[in-house]
Amino acid sequence: MERLAFPVSIVEFQHRFAGEQACLDYLAASRWPQGFACPACGGGTAWVLARRHLRECAACGRQTSVTAGTIMDHTHLPLTLWFWAAYLVATHTPGISAVQLQRQLGISRYETAWYLLHKLRRAMIAPERGLLTGEVEADEAFVGGRNSARRGGRDRTGKALVAVAVEVRGTGSGRVRLQALPAADRDTLLGFVQATIAPAAIVHTDGWSGYGYLAGAGYDHRPVNPALPPRRPEADLAPGAPGDLQPQDLDRRHPSRHLGQAPAGLPR
Ligand SMILES: [Zn+2]
C-alpha cells in the first residue's frame, strides 16, 4: 500500500480525520492511489455502498471492502477510534500502554484498548522497513531458558543464537534488528549485517573473527578490541562466559550501553 502524507501535528490530525468519512477516504486513497480498480475485472468505476467500507464495481458488481487486508478489516469499532489509537501509538515515546490508551481515548473497556494496541503494534513493524544507518553496534548471543535436563552447563541444547544490530545514538539507542541465526560463521554474520545495516555504515563489533568480512563488504568495521583472541560462539563455553548470554544477562554484558533499556518504539 502506498503511503500517503500523514499529519504530523495533533491539530492537523484532528482537522484531517474529523469523522468516519474522512478516515474512509484516506484508506481508499491509500489503497487505490490511481483511483478505484476492481480486483476482479479491473474496472475503474465503483459505487460507494451505504454499508460501511464497501465499494461495488460498476462493471461486474464485485464488492470490495476498503479495509480489507488492513488491521481494521471487519472491525466494529469506529475508524476514527482506530486512527486516533494509531496516532497515539505511533507518536507516544517511549511507548503507550493499554491503560494510557484507554484513558486518552475514553474507551470504556480495557479489553478494547488492549486489542487496539496489540493490533497496531504488530502492524507497525513495516515489512519494507529500512536498513540501519550511521553508527551501528552488532553482536550475537545465545539466548534461552535454563534446562535442568541438559547435560551440564556446556550443552547448547535448546538455546538459540540471536544476532542483534542496534543503532548508536549518543548515549541511547536507535532502531534495533534481531534475527535468529543458524551459526556465527563469517557468511552467516555478513548476511545478517547486509540484511539489516546500510552499506558504508560504521559497524562496531567485538573481536570475533566471524565479522572478518565486513570491511571487505564496504562497511566501516570497527572491532572493539581486535587484539582479543577470537572466541568461538559455537564451541563449548561455560555459562556466564562471553557469548553465552541468558536474556537477563543482556544488561550486564554492556552495563553502560543500550541493551539494558528497551529501545524506543518497541513493544513492551
Ligand atoms: Zn469488477
Question: Can you walk through the features of this model?
Answer:
The protein is α/β, with parallel strands linked by helices and 268 residues long. The protein has three domains: 1-70, no CATH class; 78-129; 135-253, no CATH class. Helices cover 26% and strands 18% of the residues. It has helices at residues 10-16, 20-31, 79-91, 98-105, 110-123, 186-196, 250-253, and strands at residues 46-48, 54-57, 63-65, 135-143, 160-169, 172-181, 202-205, 220-223. The chain has a five-stranded mixed β-sheet with strand order 6-5-4-7-8, covered by helices on one side. α4 crosses α5 (110-123). The longest helix has 14 residues, at 110-123. The two termini are 27 Å apart. The structure holds zinc ion. Zinc ion is lined by residues 38, 40-41, 43, 57, 59-60, 62.
Structural class: alpha/beta
Q: What's the N-to-C terminus distance?
A: 27 Å
Give the helix tally: 7
Q: What percentage of residues falls in helices of 4 or more residues? A: 25-40%
**Ligands bound here?**
zinc ion
**Quick check: average pLDDT?**
79
Number of domains: 3
**What is the molecular shape?**
elongated
How many beta-strand elements?
A: 8
Written as H for each helix and E for each strand, in order along the chain, the element string is HHEEEHHHEEEHEEH
Strand percentage lies at 15-25%
Main beta sheet strand tally, sense and closure? 5 strands, mixed
Write the layout of secondary structure elements.
Blueprint (H helix, E strand, L loop, with lengths): L9 H7 L3 H12 L14 E3 L5 E4 L5 E3 L13 H13 L6 H8 L4 H14 L11 E9 L16 E10 L2 E10 L4 H11 L5 E4 L14 E4 L26 H4 L15
Parallel strand pairs: 4-7, 7-8
Antiparallel strand pairs: 1-2, 2-3, 4-5, 5-6
The structure holds zinc ion (ZN).
